[in-house]
Amino acid sequence: MKLSLWRKCALGVLSVSLFNMGMMSAASAAIVDTSALVTTDREADLGAIHAQLARAEVRAQMEQMGVDAAAVEQRVARLNDRELHQLAADMRNAPAGGDGALALIGAVFVVLLILELTGVIDIFKKR
Amino acid sequence: MAGHAAHRTACLALALSLLLAGCVARGPVMSGKRTELVETPFFPQKKFQCGPAALATVLSGSGAPVTADELSSLLYVPARRGSLQVEMLATPRSFARIALPLPRTPGTLIAELEAGRPVLVLHNYGLPFWPRWHYAVLIGYDPGKDVFVLRSGSKRRQEMRTRRFMIAWHYGGRWAMVVLRPGETAALDDPKSFLEAAADFERAAKPADARATFDAAVHRWPQEPVALVGRGTAAYRLGDLGAAARDYAAALLLDTTQVGARNNLAQTMLDLGCPHRARQLLEGVEVAGVDAPLREALNDTRRTAETRAASIQDSESCRAIP
Known about the structure:
Chain A is mostly helical. Chain A contains six helices and one strand, in the order αααααβα.
């Protein structure tokens, strides 16, 4: 069977586009991210159940803590499930690197506290 | 005058903290030779902005063009007057860099320095119960003078006594991180932590960057199935199905119980027009103990393989694939 040039051409284009269609539907299917291979069962289960809750929680806390509303979405979007859980759990208390300088009031308090604890002074106790 | 008093109080508090810390930071790590990464850029910090400044330092040190001001909106938490570790680790992904947290041993800091990589550290200049957190970038050390060299705060070059550095680092939870370019691995020889960081990176990364990252891991740790799976998935996403199939198959040779590799290989076989091979791969695979996302993917792939295998024969070329 002899095919003319344009027919061969059309056939080629058609088969390539059919192949691509197949690829597109398949690519969205069942390849798992590598992260599914390195997280533990517990993390994965937590992720499945609580990720949405954690996301909402982090979003709310960020807004409360004065993060610019426009930036909150961007900041939450880049976090994975594990990071969302970590932040949701202790955003208020986790170390926050800031200035590092020992504030005067803080230093005075610390000194007073040590003196108090060692029994040199007695100003914090209720009488 | 007031400044002087503040200074003295701060000194007193520091002396106290040193006193208390005496037991925790003995035996510094100074050995080897003098190192200083003088090319490391510097971003003087604005008030409370040491997080963005330190991260901009290591990111631009690794060739990612970014400034401290640009990072501020991604890192700073006003109510905490600082930046959080989780976000310090998450942000480099947005600039095509992998963030790797380091283990809590001083030797790893030195090893990264000697490999030419500045190290971002968290310091605590207060006390365990009265913390003053600060991020700084370690760029060198000098065993002769017994000092570490930092880019820190408003100081382009700060020398800090080893002992003082170690105390502040210890009170900061011994936290440190480095950033890596795609295709780089750290001096740290720990495939597990690298692959976790690489998997975090994979989601945000361009497939080509993910491929370079896992390719480096395969070369560094050839016996790691997860490194092969990661590289395979990057190849798959770039449309190189043959390479993907080879990597997944190699991972399965190393570890036949690696269900993720099995699922991804079966999916690749489906895409290559080999539903019978795909079905064979998933035959008898137990899903009971498998994590939820992986289990769903596996069931999905199995169903598709069975449906297609009922109506389609594997093509000739399937035999040539590993």
